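Re: that backbone. C-alpha cells:
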C-alpha cells in the first residue's frame, strides 16, 4: 500500500507572531512597528508571509486602522499562548535565578511613550523580575537615586554644559512643534507650551527665544506630555518637543517660521552603586531598546 506524501507542517516564527500580536493589540501597523522596533514596511512583509504560510487573511485593512478577521481572532489566542510558553521555557533554562523587584524612574515623556513598550518586552523575556516605576521630573529622579530610593533612572540632560553623571544612551534632537497647518507661531507674543521649572526643554526654549529677542508668553503650563501634545495639535501654542515625538498632526517649525534652532539633549541612565542581576537585566534591556530606536530613526 502506498502512503501518500504529505509536506511537513511549517513552523511558526515567534518573532512574526510577536508582530502579529502587536498589530492585533494596537490596531495599527505603524504603532505596532514602534512596539516591536521594526519599520512599518518590515512589519507588513512579516504579515504578508504569515498569511501566505497559513493560506488565510488575518487582517481587514482600511485607511486608518486594521481589524482581525475570524481567522485572525483564532490565531491570536494561539499566538499569545505560544509566546507565553516560549518565554516561560527559555527563562527556566537561561535565567532561573533572576527574580526580584527593580525600582525604575523615568520622566513623563519617556514614561508615557517609550517605557510601556520597553517594559512589556522585558516582562516577556524576564517573567521573574518585577519592575516598579516612578514617573517624576529628571531633577527629582536624580535625587531619588542619590537617596537610594531608586535602583535605575532615565533622565533628560542638556548636552551643554557637559554633565558627568550617568551613561548617555541616546541623544535626541529638540525641535519646535506646531499643529499641522497651524498659525500659533505667527502670533505676537508667541504662545508657548512648556513644562515646570527644572525642565531642560523649558530652559533651552526660553533661552533661545530671549537670545533672539522674540516676545513670548506661557499660554499652556503642564508637566505631562499628553497635555503638551493636546495644546500643540489644538493650535493653542507651539512647544519644544523631541524630534521622534512629532506625529502626523504636527509639523516641525524653525527659522523659516521665525523660530530659533534648539540644541539636542541627552537621555542618560543613572544606576545604583551596587548593581544586582535583575538591575543589570533591566538596564541592558533599556540600552538595547534605545539602540533599536536609534536604528529606526536613522532608517
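Recovered sequence:
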Amino acid at each position: 500500500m502506498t502512503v501518500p506524501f504529505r509536506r511537513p507542517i511549517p513552523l511558526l516564527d515567534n518573532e512574526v507572531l510577536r508582530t502579529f500580536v502587536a498589530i492585533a493589540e494596537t490596531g495599527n501597523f505603524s504603532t505596532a512597528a514602534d512596539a516591536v522596533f521594526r519599520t512599518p514596511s518590515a512589519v507588513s512583509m512579516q504579515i504578508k508571509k504569515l498569511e501566505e504560510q497559513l493560506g488565510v487573511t488575518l487582517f481587514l485593512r482600511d485607511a486608518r486602522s486594521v481589524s482581525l478577521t475570524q481567522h485572525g481572532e483564532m490565531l491570536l489566542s494561539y499566538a499569545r499562548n505560544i509566546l507565553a510558553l516560549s518565554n516561560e521555557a527559555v527563562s527556566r533554562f537561561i535565567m532561573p535565578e533572576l527574580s526580584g523587584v527593580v525600582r525604575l524612574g523615568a520622566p513623563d515623556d519617556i514614561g508615557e511613550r517609550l517605557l510601556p513598550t520597553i517594559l512589556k518586552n522585558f516582562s516577556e523575556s524576564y517573567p521573574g523580575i518585577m519592575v516598579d516605576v516612578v514617573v517624576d521630573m529628571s531633577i527629582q529622579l536624580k535625587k531619588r537615586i542619590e537617596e537610594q530610593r531608586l535602583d535605575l533612572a532615565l533622565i533628560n540632560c542638556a548636552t551643554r554644559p557637559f554633565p558627568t553623571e550617568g551613561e548617555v544612551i541616546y541623544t535626541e534632537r529638540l525641535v519646535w512643534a506646531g499643529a499641522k497647518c497651524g498659525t500659533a507661531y505667527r502670533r505676537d507674543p508667541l504662545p508657548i507650551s512648556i513644562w515646570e521649572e527644572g525642565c531642560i526643554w523649558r530652559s533651552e526654549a526660553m533661552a533661545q527665544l530671549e537670545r533672539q529677542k522674540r516676545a513670548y508668553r506661557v499660554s499652556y503650563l503642564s508637566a505631562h506630555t499628553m497635555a503638551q501634545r493636546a495644546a500643540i495639535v489644538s493650535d493653542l501654542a507651539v512647544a519644544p518637543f523631541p524630534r521622534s515625538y512629532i506625529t502626523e498632526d504636527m509639523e516641525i517649525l524653525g527659522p523659516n517660521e521665525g523660530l530659533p534652532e534648539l540644541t539636542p539633549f541627552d537621555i542618560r541612565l543613572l544606576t545604583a552603586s551596587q548593581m544586582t542581576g535583575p538591575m543589570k537585566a533591566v538596564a541592558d534591556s533599556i540600552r538595547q531598546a534605545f539602540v533599536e530606536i536609534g536604528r529606526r530613526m536613522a532608517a
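The radius of gyration is 23 Å. The domain at 14-94 is CATH 1.10.10.10 (Arc Repressor Mutant, subunit A).
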